[in-house]
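Objective 1.3, modelling of assemblies. Example input:
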Amino acid sequence: MNHGTSLLWKQRALSSLSATRRGLPKEKMSENGMSRGKVLTIDNMNPTVKKVEYAVRGPIVQRAVELERELSEGMKKPFAEVIKANIGDAHAMGQQPITFFRQVLALCSYPELLSDSIFPEDAKNRARRILNSCGGNSMGAYSASQGIESVRQDVALYIERRDGGVPCDPDNIYLTTGASDGIVTMLKLLVCGEGAARAGVMISIPQYPLYSAALAELGAVQINYYLNEEKCWSLDISELQRALNEARRYCNPRALCIINPGNPTGQVQSRQCIEDVIRFAARERLFLMADEVYQDNVYAEGCQFHSFKKVLFEMGPEYSETVELASFHSTSKCYMGECGFRGGYMEIINMDEEVKAQLTKLLSVRLCPPVPGQALMDLVVNPPQPGEPSYERFISERTATLSALAEKAKLTEQVLNTVDGIRCNPVQGAMYSFPRIAIPEKAIKEATENGQQPDMFYCMKMLEETGICLVPGSGFGQKDGTYHFRMTILPPRDKLKILLNKVQEFHQRFTQQYS
Amino acid sequence: MLSLTTLRFPLVSLRASRNSPARLGSMLSCRRRASLPAPGRHKGRIPEWDTETRTDMRTVVQQAVSGGPLHTAFWEDEAEIGAGVKKPFKEVIDVSWGDPHRGGVKPLTFVRQVLAACLYPQLMNGEKLPVDVRQRAQKLLDGCAGWSVGSYSATGGLPEIVQRVSEFISRRDGGVPSNPENIFLCCGSQWALTRILNVLVNAEEPYPTGVLTPAPCYSTTTLSIEGLGGVVVPYYLSEERGWELQVEELHRALESCKGACHPIALYVINPGNPAGQVQSRKSMQEVIRFASEKRLFLLADEVYQSCIYGEKEFVSYKRVLSEMGPPLSDTVELASFHSASKGFMGECGLRGGYVELVNLDPAVKKYIYTLFCADSSPPVLGQIALDLMTNPPQPGDPSYLLYYQVRSRSTVVNNVKKACEVINSLQGFSCQAVEGGAFAFPRIHLPAKAIQKAKEAGMQPDTFYCLRLLEEAGVLASPGSDYGQEEGTFHIRFCILLPHDVLGELLLRLSNFHTQFMKDYS
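Predicted structure (tokens):
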């Protein structure tokens, strides 16, 4: 299937969808319901739900979908297509799946293909192995709530290899529905207490909105610690200390969340910094949550990914036997970018046994993670080995994707930094740039009058004028008086270049218009 | 091979008495019963639980960790069989959950071919797969960003699939309109139910939120309600009347929780799980009137809607509501749940489900949308399963014949009938007609001696029975006490959506075991 036409189809499909989602006459039942009060109203619904916000899929994205529809209906716009650089969705941006992964999954779905010669032997063997661990040899059976045992074993082996031999117990591995399922579940376990004893959770600012959304929903106290933009979004222990001391006055801080490599900020933590964070968590008795879903996405020279688990264990028993840690990984990022499968795992270290039992119970409520996602996780942690028929192809596909990402990270930083009024830290890792933008006073005033955050105003204007969909920094949190946007580095190189040029032009026009 | 950790949800159940008017409080870390250990507080990591929840938690913990006495035994059994210990059976038949594929039901070829083609589009080149399979895969991929099932979908699901699901609903309901904007696809219906409960259960009110819930009831739902800080208010289905839902009992239940909680929703399971009843239209109308009068939000769990074996037809709550006309049809708020895990397809592992919302306040719906946003997007293969379930091959399509051949309804109906006959022929067993669903839930009249023996072992009598059944006959069923039952009555639940031969073997083992058991304890 030719990719160009497929994109076109996609657009058509999208627009038809939004037409039905938005435009068609509403059904009678739901619209005439005003004659008497609702049972469930915004006044009596669970108030914590009202505090949930999710910028990555917020108003800008909704407008982008509308614009796509308008375009397809022939409406004139100053651009030919909407480019969604708002979300870390690699395949949507044209990245191709890893052949081996998809072969195995296709075989697992339809095992009759095992007799087909188009599939390499190692893919077939792998599919058989996965199917043997599924109930009734089918991906359509429920798995255990914690995940398929053989997959958890493979995850444990992967972690041991990754961490230079630090042991990993499969019983500590929980397969999840994407990393977010694990993160939310852990937060649920941690949150308790009333008033000044209410649990507080430390998150970085800027942060990934999943954290703020989950904390709002749970009614937990969000404790902000600011990353140091001047020092390439690095984490200062003194800032952690400041945030913690302040928070202790009004809540009970229990957990510290770290995203490494950073989202949206793209920094990669140094080993030293991780050690300091672990010491801090140990000293202050905080539960550590390490979001490490971008662990393969490290581009900058001199930067290396160090897992919290590895560093923790290399710090000796004083730490490795006491500090409680949950670390998260997923199939959605790195070189695979398989977001649609909702595969992921978490590893839990040093957690109280009885709490673990509660965790198992919590997980059992959602029955099990999607089995194809579990199968995919298995392939990610246990890819083809040297000597196997699929090895060469796998390595070349993986290398191509990762080196293209590295190149695009560099390109993004370079181009954005040529623009007056945009300053971009190096994208050391992950999939985003998070440049700071100068917004003229006049624009800030107009935004405020519209009841909009200035960077939301900026991004909305950019979308209307250029068709580029970004997420304003205010959706992630930022220091007061600073403005940013998050842009993915995922579009194909040529498209990315066009996109960056358009951003540049827009910024200049915008600055001119409002100065 | 199962291990200790492969525990199953039905046994992760609540131990508090089902017969108390309202089982207060949550066992998770909800505010009112804040109780999980503070990692930051306790050097030795000893949890600081308030004593009240502690016992409760302990029990559940044990249930959860060990999978309960049954599952421990199961595990040992399997291990022993593996180790060559002689047992009176070759392998354990696990009918403790409604998982058709695990029970040996084969996946539908059409479904799996489409999935394979979506996963590996190279399969669409050439004639390997039937043309309708290729067309469908093509159409589905057209709806996916970047032509890949690996991309995120929109919140609430791929719009084309949502659209087709809404058309399915409208067809099913005899033309009652269904608006795609009111449909959210998600990671299984249970996930959606928890999301909606999350909006209903107001954790900040001083008075806890109550949800009227059938007894017996699927145990994951009660766990969800309590986990969110809500209160389960049980209403008992009338076993004598074929597990009928009686509106007087709803009144009683509502009265019973006065002063203990603020009831906001009424949860119904139709066709029933575990009870297997199918509600009549008249009964549904009564329920709707009751919900309207008492100002309750209706939660209709309709995941077994295509599993119907008797004379009674399945009618959706949405349809009945709509046909009752205004003012009811314009006012009663309803959330209806469906899933790809059951019915013909039985694709539990793909995790595809949806909820349709009716008459919701648009302002509330906005927040529900945001909640679903935070879940990223539902698994795409699960969404595809829903698409295929709601839009199966049509007459004339190359896959049509095969699709319907393997799933002849009459085979299933005969199986179910046979199962009920066999059970009812056994002394001490009585099984209401299984009109729908996936389970039989027969009552066992246990001899006093067996009850005594169970008590001595510190077990519920039906748990004791199931444990013996597992040990001696290699059949893993689950005890009625996990689902809630009238005090002094005992039941077992087992899945009947099984291939003919497996069901035959199951019934044979059960019969032999039961006869011997009754002899031993009479």
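DSSP finds 18 helices and 14 strands in chain B.
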